[in-house]
Amino acid sequence: MHWSVYLIVFVGLLLAFACTGQRASTKFTEVLPVGDYKALLSEKQGEVQLLDVRTAREYAAGHIEGAQNLDVLDKSSFAEGIQRLDPAKPVMLYCRSGRRSANASALLEKKGFTEIYDLKGGFVAWSAQN
Predict the structure, then answer these.
(1) Rounded Cα distance, 15 and 77, in Å
(2) Can you list the domains of the chain with their CATH numbers?
(3) Most CB atoms closer than 10 Å: which of 66, 88, 91, 126?
(4) What is the pTM of this model?
(5) CA dist., res. 11 & res. 24, Å (int)
(6) How many Cβ atoms are within 10 Å of 29's Cβ, its own excluded?
(7) What's the CA gap between 29 and 130, in Å, rounded?
(8) For 49, phi and psi rounded to 5 degrees?
(9) How far apart (Å, rounded) are the C-alpha atoms in residues 113 and 10?
């Protein structure tokens, strides 16, 4: 094969992986679709720490019942807020569409949290199915 064919295939694969939207699960974070997230939330009720990592304005406009608001964009407030959480307990988090919660889960992993669940598609997906 000609080298240009390999280049085209490589660029195609690169684009396919770059355009997947939400990142894949990491070592301690599992990204769950709405149905699985809702089932797990119900199953772990009372033992899970549910976090809405959107802004206070977004939270006030609507949120999942029982969620506490820790705005990941407010770095000092978010860092202070996660200090009050128990790293030994599971954390379920979400944002509007999945990007900020991916950042939040990475920060939680760095702080020693090992059981993290992220809502695929965020509150937008949750609202569409509830």
Answers:
(1) 36
(2) 22-129 (3.40.250.10)
(3) 91
(4) 0.78
(5) 20
(6) 24
(7) 24
(8) -105, 110
(9) 36
Q: In what order do the strands lie in the sheet with 68-69?
A: 29-32, 116-119, 91-94, 49-52, 68-69
> What is the C-alpha to C-alpha distance for residues 126 and 92, in angstroms, rounded to an integer?
13
pLDDT, position 2: 58
For residue 24, the one-letter residue type is A
Q: What is the pLDDT of residue 83?
A: 95
Residues in the chain: 130
One-letter amino acid at 25 equals S
Give the separation between CA 119 and CA 85, rounded to whole angstroms. Answer: 19
**19 classed as catalytic:** no
What is the rounded radius of gyration, in angstroms, for the C-alpha atoms of the chain?
A: 17
Query: Which residue matches tokens 């355009």?
Result: 19
Q: Which residue has the tokens 């860092």?
A: 79
User: Alpha helix (H) ranges present in 62-121?
Assistant: 75-83, 99-110
Find the catalytic residue in 95, 104, 108, 119.
95
More confident residue, 130 or 116: 116
* Cα–Cα distance, 52 to 104 (Å, whole number): 10
